[in-house]
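Hello forum,

I keep getting stuck at the same step: I have a sequence, I want structure tokens, and every attempt I make locally crashes halfway through. Rather than fight my setup again tonight, could one of you with a working pipeline run this one for me? It's a single chain of 425 residues.
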Amino acid sequence: MCAIICENTDFFAIFAIVFADFENMMDFNTIERFDKIATPFYYYDMDLFRKTVDHVAELASQHNLKVHYAIKANVERRLLEYISSKGFGADCVSGNEVLHAHDCGFPGGKIVYAGVGKSDKEIYNALMLDIEAFNCESLQEIYVINEMAHRYGKKANVSVRINPDIDAHTHKYVTTGLYENKFGISQHEFEKLIEIIGKSEHINFIGLHFHVGSQITRVSEVFALECKRVNEIVAYFERNGLKVGNINLGGGLGVDYDDPDGSPIADFETWFRTISENIVRRPDQKVHVEPGRSLVAQCATLISRVLFVKSGETKNFLIMDAGMNDLIRPALYGAYHKIENLSAEMRTFFPTHQAYDIVGPVCESSDVWGAGRLLPLSVRGDLMAIRSTGAYGQVMASRYNMKDLAPSVFSDRLDEAPVMTDYFE
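Reply #2:
Ran it on my machine without issues. Output:
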């Protein structure tokens, strides 16, 4: 299809936009191979994924930090097996995550188990694996774990999650460290907490756990403040007889959803440096971090196909075959994901651009990927890329409307991808 450029089009501006996209996009050969794969699917750039994990491993070694991957962000087996091979631990928030992490190569001694609502069955299974720590989030939870450990002849390692009352300056649904949040134990319970731990014979208290929120982009400011508050809390507990061997600062490092090609790897350097410069620790204390989103978000792209182009009186719609059942973040949080037309880049370097509301097939008005997005002229059958979907994409997917789940397709295993039928020929 030839480009249509009107006489008052800023030719050089269009050229700059398209050429910049082309330079950072997947190569033409990869896009051509996508055209043979059934959509929607999650495409994993395994080179970027490994580069990110290796980078974090190197920085963690430099700053003497222990890393536990927060597997709730993405539980894809291939990713977990590589992460565990690098010596990272696993941060889990359900009993099934604990079992899955162990099955993917994380030894029990490198698994920490957080979450405000652990069932007896989940606690039992984690006890049997002799996990590194239960991150307890209420006083009653400590009672229960102590009783169960006594019943089964175990001694449970426990780290207590403290609510530091810090504003992470992020979305209200992913802010977890404020006083009124459901997570962690607040200051008014500190004295009672110390008393309970002192009386719990089957609890081995190993440290304190903190987490202030997710998708934090004001990195230096927020994490420096967290460290300052942690220093005060650790000092309080040690003055009152509890030796804090482990300081777990949680995760929360944000990624660049606006420009995934410009920032393919999150700013781990600033995060780790901020911790090193602000945390107070003795030589015998270990400091832990729990990156999740920042390890995996940029390595995956949700690939979809345009089913229909619909022209309204004031809007143009692109109706895609991927919906909120595949990626719920835009519908749930109003989250932004960059969207690109891969097929248009194959047709011409100078496509006409047009504003579209990009929507999915699910029978809900909230099934919208983006409103008024400026894209090259798009047609039925075009391949579309929804970027930065490696975190909280597949793990939050559902079969709502009885839709099929989008499969994983790996950059180094494209030949194994499900083949598309000939509907568009």
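Residues 1-24, 170-179 have pLDDT under 50 and may be disordered. If your local run keeps crashing, start a new thread with the error log.
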